[in-house]
Amino acid sequence: MGVVALVPAAGRGERLGYGLPKALVPVGGVPLLVRAVRGLFEAGRVQHVVIAAPPSDVDIVNTVTAPLAPAGGAVHVLAGGAERSDSVRLALAYALREIPGTTIVLVHDAARAFTPPHVVRAVVEAVEAGRPAVVPVLPVTDTVKQVDADGVVVATPDRAALRIVQTPQGFDARVLLRAHESGLHATDDAGLVERLGVPVATVAGHQDAMKITTPFDLAVAEALLVGGQA
Ligand code: CTP
Ligand code: MG
Questions:
Q1: What is the pLDDT of residues 30-44, one digit of tens each?
Q2: Which atom from ligand 1 is nearest to the alpha carbon of 52?
Q3: What does this gene product do (predicted)?
Q4: The whole model's pTM is what?
Q5: What backbone torsions phi and psi does residue 47 show, to the nearest 5 degrees?
Q6: Architecture of domain 3-229
Q7: How far does residue 13's CA lie from ligand 2's centre (Å)?
């Protein structure tokens, strides 16, 4: 029923420093983006995926992801924007314009290539159950300090009330559109929705949904994750 996944994949992967856009960096010989899209379809709840690709790589992204779509579904590739939020906005506009019946949208980073399909399903089910916005989360295991401009600690938030946020984040499509049209700024899509005053619900995330950002993360993925999922 009307679930479309938007995959921002247009970043350059500067912190990874691999010499390729991060979406195309292979882990166990398979590009991160291919793994991410495969996982979305494997959840069995997504028919259409809209990818915001690096503008110079739209054709190659099309070639490597088109075969992943299930019968009756499709992968759509467009050129992403300058910032992640621009890429999401472009993909959302495309979905609402070109994919009839788009009622629920997931926003999923290509960089979270090993997200287990059951996390995708849990997010979709929570939105279907009536939550306008849903994020997968993990507990915080480190103590977290708030510091001032000089790096001096000013507060120690109660760790029990903190969560690490992952993707896919799930939304009523109209709510996400309103958030992106609001002119507000936030570091993730749920943060934008939160600023509208819309409640954001949580479901259990998974450590395999880690974001691959640095060479360390890539090494962890190669060492721990490829065997189980390749
Ligand atoms: N992204 C995007 N469009 C941008 C920037 C980022 O679609 N203009 C995507 C990335 O491709 C990634 C996700 O947003 O899947 C999260 O971004 P991040 O992990 O920061 O990836 P990069 O921007 O590629 O990495 P870096 O910041 O190190 O360059
Ligand atoms: Mg980035």
A1: 999 999 999 999 999
A2: 7
A3: Catalyzes the formation of 4-diphosphocytidyl-2-C-methyl-D-erythritol from CTP and 2-C-methyl-D-erythritol 4-phosphate (MEP).
A4: 0.96
A5: -100, -35
A6: Alpha-Beta Complex (3.90)
A7: 7
